[in-house]
Amino acid sequence: MTSPVAPAEAGLEMYELIRELYPICRSITGDGVRETLRWVSKHIPLVVHEVPTGTPVFDWTVPREWNIRNAYVMGPKGDRIIDFKQSNLHVLNYSVPVKQKVSLAELKEHLFSVPEHPDWIPYRTSYYKENWGFCVTQRQLEALEDGLYGVCIDSTLENGHLTYGEYYLSGETANEVLITCHVCHPSLANDNLSGIAVVTFLAKQLSVSNPRHSYRFLFIPGTIGSITWLARNDANIHRIKHGLTVACVGDEGKFTYKRSRKRDSEIDRVVSHVLQHSGKEYEILDFTPYGYDERQFCSPGFNLPVGCFMRTPHGRYPEYHTSADNLAFVHPASLEESLATAKAIIEVLEGNRIYMNQNPKCEPQLGKRGLYRSTGGPDAAQDELAILWVLNLSDGDHSLLNIAERSGLAFQVVQRAAHALAEQHLLLERAP
Ligand code: ZN
Prior knowledge:
Helices cover 31% and strands 23% of the residues. The chain has twelve helices and 19 strands. The radius of gyration is 25 Å and the shape is elongated.
């Protein structure tokens, strides 16, 4: 697979994209999503879909569109004490418009803070229940004095659209790999923006290769976005053979993979294999019906082989869903490693095939074909072992991944052996 940019540059470029997207106030609908997709479109040819408010999508309905221009709270002395312009996290996401005077007691019913981290602003939403509110630091909350406060949320919640982006990369076959990320969080760097950056660059780099699978990249608002996409694409779901949701991939934590509901689908085994041979610490989690959009892709009516690729999972780092998930929390080197690992996963998916041994009665004589002790070097013994494994298990039932798993060898070593044997006509790819 060729890459248009060197990996070291990719880490910095992904970080730059995150820096550009960070100030935008996103939500599950509205102009923040559109602006985000415009930035992504500078890298890949995204098709932007607009689905009208009120469209039924399975048991749900596309909600009214939310947009916000400004929001603030004026203190009793007339000074602006909470200001959306300083951080878009200050407003409860999807707050209905409000402009009124309230007592301190009434104001406090609409304030959210994180007491254990007194300088952080929490990220809170109220998508499906009409409400208004402000998110503040614990210090801001504690400094509030008795008196009359002026609250203003200059937002609109009106009929409009739900917006999502889609990029379809056509491969040799119609078998699809689905790769998705969510685009609905405001200024949060790891949860949301890191996934957008890694998926964008994965798509960009794959677009200059000639993949065997077709790839579908989705940039969708969480939950309602995947439900909407699934409802509109129900007829073609059978094409999806593998999938990943990508989230929280810019922090310094180890890789975490959450298996699909099927638990041992090819994507589950491929990710496990790649992480196992990465030489790094990692964790595999079993499927749970909680998390990101894999919840919808893995609902029983679809049961798609879609797992979730992360570093530190949601809820397992204190910065999660607070203002501390900021530009200092994500790192170019982590983004780069996440991209490289995602590419390694795709390389295995692309290269996994089933071959037939053309000389199955006893071992073929490898020496006369230059396949035995022909090369020295540290890899020679491993390569020979891989040749024996591939010959032995290429009976039409075992894929190269099966052989890698059973032999304990890395997929690339097994693949190299298969290519060498195929060149000598000792192996033939099984017709699909
Ligand atoms: Zn989140």
